[in-house]
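Question: Hello, beginner here. Any chance you could explain the protein record under this note? Any guidance would be welcome.
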Amino acid sequence: MPVFTRTRQLPGTKDEPTAPTNDEPAAADGEDAPQEPQGPPAPDDESSTGGAGGNNPAEGEAEAWRRHLRWTVTALAAVLVYVCLQMPNTLGNLRLREFVRLPAEAIIGAAVLLILPRRPRLIVAAFSGAALGALTVVNVLDLGYNEYLGRHFNIVLDWGLLDDAHSYLEDSLGGGTTLLLTIGVVVLVVLLIVLVALAMVLLSNLLARYKPRASKGALVAGTVWITCSAFGLEVAGVPIAADHTAGVLKVQAHRVKDTLRDEAAFAKEARADSFGATPPDQLLPDLRGKDVIFTFIESYGRSALTDPVIAPGVEKTLDTSTKALTDAGFHAKSGWLTSATFGGSSWLGHSTTMSGLWIDNQQRYRTVMSSDHLSLTKAFQKTGAWDTVGVMPGVQKGWPEQEFYGLDKVYNAFQLGYQGPKFSWSTMPDQYALEAFQRQVHGKKRDKPLMSEIILTSSHQPWAPLPKMVDWDDLGDGSLFGPIQKAATKPADIIADSTRSKQEYGRSVEYSVTSLTQWLERYGTDDTVLVFLGDHQPIARVSGTDASRDVPISIVAKDPKVLGKTTSWNWTDGLQPAPNAPVWKMSAFRDRFLTAYGSTPHPSKE
């Protein structure tokens, strides 16, 4: 079909069809030019009204304004797509120099769009733009997970944890604020995906409108990319030739494949239990008659003893508590465990410690919880020589894990009689939870010794507001904590301040340790054996981006025979492990504990 354009008409002449000049874009894809969506005009384009500064100055100014607006929108679209192509997935890489690279994906994408007919081009542009927007959302989630949990976001397993994040925000910031934040996040995610898709469509139209120039530009850009890649050219240590988006897709694909493979491999590992077939009378014979308590202190990690802002207060508390326990006739040994989790997901640390399996993701957790693998706490129940209970002030709904842990009775947040206020995520102060345990469980007469698992929550982030120690005789139903909670620091005051978060985190650990050790001084007997440890390090904003996953662990008892069983462990005397004390994987603790106290291995058959 011949293509005609209209030129500026001179007075006294008639309209005549003319061929397009070299300065005007030809119609793309064999279609009439008016059917092609309009992109920004070429700088020398003139409007049919006579151009800017023609016979109608007002209309010329309006046309000039529209032309600038089109260029601005196009430039913003290009910047949006470029930023999404280069978006890093770790906070440390969120730097300007990461955005001065030449993305291979942009060059290849332009080449593909240039050769496609109009309808397929628009479909490909919209779909690839939406996919790029979704991948950017995943990168932002990856960035957040790296910052808070010290690991990457798993697109197969981690969507369920967003509900826990919502509950955490609700407890920390309130229901109204959390609702507004949730709506805002959903709107931003949808808006990002839609805007990137529209941006890609707009840019594809621009490429088609100026196809000859765009083709030359893509060829030049491709040549530059290959040259930079071949010679390893860099800017501030960052390679100029980039394929970041392709790399992210490759990593995510491998992660999905590895996740799916891991499920079958871990299920097989969970069935192979070295103590799975041990007869009841051969489990824990050297602890018979003892009241054994396993206690997890939330977010109690190595950073509490090494960070210069946090450590002085925590070390002083541990030294004071060690002395007080020694005066009461107790002795302690301490070491380190490397947790299976970091910054959160406490249940992974709990289950790793008790199962003897490395449970570092939700899939493994679900697998082991539905298995008959022998947990350490269930070993006590299996003997028939102990009553077994759990004190779980953080549990506020049904908890089917009770069966895996072998607990005859579980006291959740609503069964401990607490009538005071919540302290952010923590439903009650640790001191109250321990006093309720004493009143409802430990202090009662019974025919068998007691094995207890207690989860303390006052040191859970955001570490504000925090409770204070009160006289144990005044605890009552916890109502006296009302004024303490109202006068305490608010989460919003520290949540974005790293230094203040560290200070309040340290105070929370001091409070939890003091509550536990004072309870032991007050209610412990010659037959009490206390094992307490952290479940994981605090988030990276507090512990540091290069922090280890180590957590302290201590065993406390009056009977010297109990601690004598751990002599080969070479743990440190007292509640504070030495920096060079032995470090075990958290999954090693179950078997070492069972072996130390006389259990005989009898592997179960797969």
